[in-house]
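User: As part of a screening pipeline, I want to sanity-check one entry by hand. Below is the sequence and the SMILES for 2-oxoglutaric acid. Please return the complex as structure tokens so I can compare it with the automated output.
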Amino acid sequence: MTRKAQSDNRKAEAQQFLLPDAAITLWPAWLSAGRAAIIQAQLTTELSWRQEQIRIYGKTVSIPRRQVWMGDPHCSYKYSGVRFIPASWHPEVRHLATELSDVVGRPFNCVLLNLYANGQDHMGWHADNEPELGRAPVIASLSLGAARRFDLQHRQRGHQLQLQLDHGSLLLMAGDCQQYWQHRLPKQSRVATPRLNLTFRYITPPG
Ligand SMILES: O=C(O)CCC(=O)C(=O)O
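Assistant: Here is the complex for your manual check:
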């Protein structure tokens, strides 16, 4: 099958959610289980994962997961008072960024990778609304490993959405999603195996 035909098949399998102030699309099996497992194993062993420390309400705490920030050299990123300088592209991650750009029709030049050892590791409510990402960022979130629940809630209207992000799934958050909605990856104590998530983003180059 050609790359174009593969990407058309993936598009056909997309689920779109009709929600106020957001454009959310889920491809439950964007990568085959085999390819997703190979990429998960490779990135888990080959990247320099760090458990970052951030300041919350004046206290320094370790975040409940490990991370790598990666991308083009200009893509530095400020999160909870810490400025992250991007690691250079891992070839497989750069390849995924190009593939995703083809499918989504938008460029991606940086990515936050999160490694959750098990269901105790998590990420709290937040939006990817840092000024570097622009007014209506397009975020492409690829999941590898343990299936986890992913929650979204509208900041003003109270709408909620719960999704399951499976091994090899792709979630696209676009439109005004980051302005009006928050999302989180809650703790799930019964999950015993690791999960890796890559959120591809775009930061406008200077000049
Ligand atoms: O692991 C996930 O699915 C959530 C990641 C996330 O919310 C983020 O990178 O901003």
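Points to compare against the pipeline: DSSP finds four helices and 15 strands in the chain. The pocket of 2-oxoglutaric acid is lined by residues 112, 114, 123, 128, 141, 150, 165, 183, 185, 197, 199 (CB under 6 Å).
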